[in-house]
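Question (not urgent): is this output format expected?
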Amino acid sequence: MIIHAEFAILKYHVQVGGKDSVDAKISELLKMQYDLAVEKGWIDDRTPEKAPLSILWSIDELGEAIAIIKKKGADGIMENETVRAHFIEEVADTFMYLFDMMNAYEISAEEFSDAFVKKFEKNMGRQWSENKIMYEDSKIKLIIFDMEGTIVHESTAVKSAERLLETLSRTGINLVLISDFEPDKVKKILTDNGLDAGAFHSIIKSQHYGEAFEKAMADFGAKPDESIVCTGSNVALKIAQRLGMIPCAVKGRFSHAMYEKAGAKHILEDVIEIEKVL
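Got this back:
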């Protein structure tokens, strides 16, 4: 269990309901929940094995906050002091259980803050087009990635690959990866680069694009016009076009004009732009 920092002057910096109330630090809130567990004899339950219970209790408390929204509406929360106090109390209960969970997993205020800031910076760089992809039906049933040049380049992950796979894995679209390597080696390359190999529904070893494309469509019951091929290979683009699929070129060593000549319907500067195609 984490030994939290001691507060020498004030036991806690917050006086509930008083004029001296301040913006409490995450470390202070974690300390409060730790002290509460010790005082009430609950500390033995603050273990990693029992941490999921705290998450479930937080969901229960959040449900109570939602019930207030449902019954009293936004006006009640914004204009009625009693309703507002009750609502904030339920929100506080929600966070208390989440802080219990953090204590159980020994997640420090510094770890949490670092993760929060990194996620904030990531979100600031997002276009949010993936929300539309995740929650709206798409006519596309299959995306085939030619591994080299789209997901990895010379055994190193493409910068945007992780976020793309995270987004696409939440859709109903089947993802297939084609490579010259055996599937186990492909999985190791992906894992070594911090990518989720499980995001792909199938990994096909093949040196013949036509056979691989037809196998993938057959395996997942996708028609050619429901299937995207994402590749940097002009040969793969030509075959995809001949089969009636949707060829998407990820720019590499060839010029824009050459990709167009090969039959690319879309030419992407980066594989993440497949979101716009969808």
